[in-house]
Amino acid sequence: MITQDKLNEYIWAGGDIDGYARSGRSSDITDADWLFLDKMVSAITMIRQGLVSDSFEREHEQVVGKEFDSRATYDALCEFERTSEQSGVEGPR
Prior knowledge:
- The chain is mainly α.
- It has one domain.
- The protein has 5 helices and no strands.
């Protein structure tokens, strides 16, 4: 389950798992969570750009309902996706 705390760590690192590992920070986010969030960001981008089928969007929404602790957490990931694409966020150094 993706919680707001896990998402906060992902956003703090700008989605950069290597930078996060080098930072020495510690949380309950796992590599599997990180991979899942990376995939979700890619899916959100494709949806926002209108590059997916209706069935892909429906399946995506089902995953959101099962894997996120709240809609607010998912919405925060959508905001991260939108702003990171615009700003070219690279993560911590």
